[in-house]
Amino acid sequence: MIVRAKAPLRIGLAGGGTDVSPYSDKYGGYILNVTLDMFAFATIQTRDDGKVHFNAQDIEQTFTAEASAELPVEGSLVLHKAIYNRVVKEYNNGEPLALDVITYSDAPPGSGLGSSSTMVVAILSAYRELLKLPLGEYDLAHLAYEIERKDCLLSGGKQDQYAATFGGFNFMEFHQDRVLVNPLRIRSDIQNELESQMVLYFTGVSRDSGKIIDDQIKASSSTTSMEQSLNALHQVKQSAFDMKECLLRNDIEGMSNVLKSSWQAKKSTSASISNTYIEEVAQLAIDNGAKSLKLSGAGGGGFMMIFVDPINKRPLIKALKQTDGQVHSFQFTNSGVTAWTV
Questions:
Q1: What pTM was computed for the model?
Q2: Quick one: pLDDT band at residue 206, thresholds 50, 70, 90?
Q3: Which of 24, 42, 148, 167 is found 20 to 30 A from 7 (Cα to Cα)?
Q4: In whole angstroms, what is the distance from residue 295 CA to residue 303 CA?
Q5: Which residues pair with 2 in a beta bridge?
Q6: How many whole angstroms separate alpha carbon 214 and alpha carbon 212?
């Protein structure tokens, strides 16, 4: 039997970092994000030789072993192993599954587009299709979150799993005991104009978001020394409300202004969010027509989202081609994760 799944990557328009515990537990986190036509893909096919085989083709890592009730969550492909363990334990009565899991992502790990969490959602969705699991959208996203944060002890927030699961434009609320996803119905003309005024640029630097997330966790403790960082997180959260209001009013210029102020606030939450190279690229972009910009995700590298007047878009792209990074074409997508049987 063969099943496949794909889940969309996302860009965070505003509020990123406020979905991280303990900030979201204490103060509530709010995020506006949207998914792109860039995906994480997963194929699962059953085997008859009693083995389990994982192959992450994009990062060229493989793992093969005898199928067992629990695989050691260590070494390579820990997410693949942790997902397998959860599915076997909770949904297959502890009985081993002999299968191949082959994956690929359109974006590298550390891209700032939620690629790792999106891959978890894609793989889980494939298992859901294979075993006909009774998992709704919230169940799937929450399980993906638990596997990353609890089973694998990876630092991070919650938005990526929910964005990949639900898809489209979403205004998300994160609290200690609940997550609420509010889908936004954005007219096609607004989406088209927003796409026309945006450039998605990969800095060429993948980063480990762990240190940045850890800095934000410290800020949430609200000690005197971290008061500036905590206030900055409050500003980042407010930007999500402001950005949503502008988006619904088709105020793209307003969205650009919110992006500019939220990027400054975001940089105040951790010294690891920006660096000399990023600032040089940012200045190059501004000098060539960019109105505002910010890094997607935790920061430190990955993808940069840039607002620019459409008449200045081609000159800006030409200037960015002088750097070590790459401009990526994209469109918004309004669908979340999907899986099917071959």
A1: 0.91
A2: low
A3: 24
A4: 6
A5: 45
A6: 5
Dist. CA 286–CA 220, nearest whole Å:
32
Catalytic residue (choose from 160, 177, 309, 324): 160
Q: Is 48 a catalytic residue?
A: no
The number of angstroms, rounded, from the C-alpha of 140 to the middle of its chain's C-alpha atoms is 15
Query: Are 2-185 and 188-328 equal in CATH topology?
Result: no
CA 325 to CA 339: how far, in whole Å?
A: 33
Domain boundaries, the chain: 2-185, 188-328
Amino acid type, 337: V
* CA 268 from centre of chain: 21
**Residue 160: alpha-carbon gap to chain centroid:** 4
Domain 2-185 sits in CATH at: 3.30.230.10
Query: Is the domain defined by 188-328 classed in CATH 3.30.1370.20?
Result: no
- Closest among 34, 106, 6 to 332, alpha carbons compared: 34
Residues 252, 131: Cα–Cα separation, whole Å: 44
**Bridge partners for 31 per DSSP:** 172
| Buried-state track 106-142, b at ≥16 Cβ within 10 A, e below 16 | bbebbbbbbbbbbbbbbbbbbbbbbeebebeeeebbb
With the CA atoms of 230, 234, 237 and 243 taken in that order, what torsion angle do they form, in degrees rounded to the nearest 10?
-130
Q: Backbone phi, then psi, for 235, in 5-degree steps? A: -65, -40
- Quick one: DSSP state of residue 322? T
pLDDT for position 275: 86
| Omega prior to 22 cis, within 30 of 0 | yes
